[in-house]
Amino acid sequence: MLSHEFIRLALLAGTPIALACGLVGYMVVLRSEVFAGDALSHVAFTGALAAAAAGIDLRAGLFAATVAVAASMGLLGPRAHADDIVIGTVFTWILGLGALSLSLFVSGRSSGNGAGGVHVLFGSIFGLGAGEARLAALIAVGVIAALIAIARPLLFASLDGAVAEARGLPVRGLGVLFLCLLGLTAAEATQAVGALLLLGLLAAPAGAAHRLTVNPYRGLALSGALAVGALWLGIALAYSVPSFPPSSAIITVAAAAYLASGAATRLRRREVSRLAGPTDP
Amino acid sequence: MADAPVAFATGGGLTLNLADDVRQLLTYHFMVNALVAGTAVAVMAAVVGWFMVLRRQAFAGHTLSLIAFPGAAGASLIGVPAAWGYFTACGLGAVVLSPASRGGRARSAETAAIGTVQALALGAGFLFVSLYHGLLNGISGLLFGTFVGIADGQVTALIVVAAVAIALVAVAGRPLLFASLDDEGAAAAGVPVRALGAGFLLLLGLAVAATAQITGTLLVFTLLVTPAATAQALTVRPGAGLVLAVAISLLVTWLGLGIAYFSPLPVGFWITSLSFGLYVLARAWRALRGGRR
Prior knowledge:
The structure holds two protein chains of two kinds. By secondary structure, chain A is an all-alpha fold.
């Protein structure tokens, strides 16, 4: 399997992207900003298609759109958190613009059949070129480094914003910075699993890690490891079952890990209560 | 569906005479179907969406709307009508989500569960589409909606679903309003809050499944959230808010369908832009009136 160039490129780009998704996703779940991640994934779609319709590099539109929207969500929302209804209203309109870009893009090419739009929506990790894969890996490594650098103050600010503010931490600035990192991650993950599926890579490993441990550093590491594991298994699965698209395979593995974590927590709770013995009088 | 492009080609252009233009619109059967179905869906989506916005369940609603996509894709894979797939998938989705969605102050673990369900559903949808080997244009129809291909039977089904949904809201409206505004008080007063919450999610699934057939799964929110959010920015009174939401939703749907007929741009773009424009105006008007109370 590793003798194929496209598999090696997929692993080269996918591994750091998945790790970034796992780490950023842990913070996203901790800060209850999953819906913001969802919205950014839709913004990624519009950004990429608008760039395609305008005839510039897809990734330029992708990164510009997600980071700009993430920053404005952070700046407009109260305490650098965005309100659900505002997010819902804004991203629906942005998706409408995406539909517009898709139709402009399709009608602008003689051979257009919407395939470009489908690639953006659902990703094509097996279709990455060598240069693209290297650049994606570099950016993902940058996101990971930035997140690790701000992990400690960000955890403090997320768990207890009022106390962190009293201690002189720039809580608002951290929130905006984090949303920008989330925007970068969304743009990155769009290239791996597509705009519609990246939420699975953000939410499922992180949700599982939150269920399995309450220790934030252990949780961060676990979430990153689960995301990378899901990517590797998903790629192997898609390689061995050719009709299974890689994006679907990766998300299926991640969701299975989340379900398994629920079962594991329930088992452990039963074990603990059995060991503790009957407490009822 | 096959004769739709021909109708466009022979349809003539905009004449700037409103009565003539409307008459021209109504000469095409597919356009009448789209307008009737759009009206039924717009009224239902506005009413159900008003409660959804009130209950702060936008994320759950959005996830339900995306679950409609694998439903439709799966239905075309096994060869049954897409409408069945929409309703089955959304009903199942509502049942799966109801333990995870308590509305309002959802805990972080719950949002992770909703996000996982959503991604899994979309992954399944993509799998179905690639197994189907269908035309890729089919995907963008499912995702972004199409209004030229609505069959007569589908129109009847949508009207029946809308009538059922509105009747349910009319019956359960008062306790649902009580439970949405003050769940602890409602529970203390003997209102079955949990059953109402689960029932509302099922109703939301029904509304989403119907709306998705017109707007496509990605743009359901434009009729579900935006009119309701606009109405709630303008008034806090439930009765007036519901009427306003329905009026906005109807206006946006009719204008959107009408403009899309005469323009080469997609209907989804027009409906989302019109409703978003109204929302921005409403927010601006409220800000001018002195902002938040």
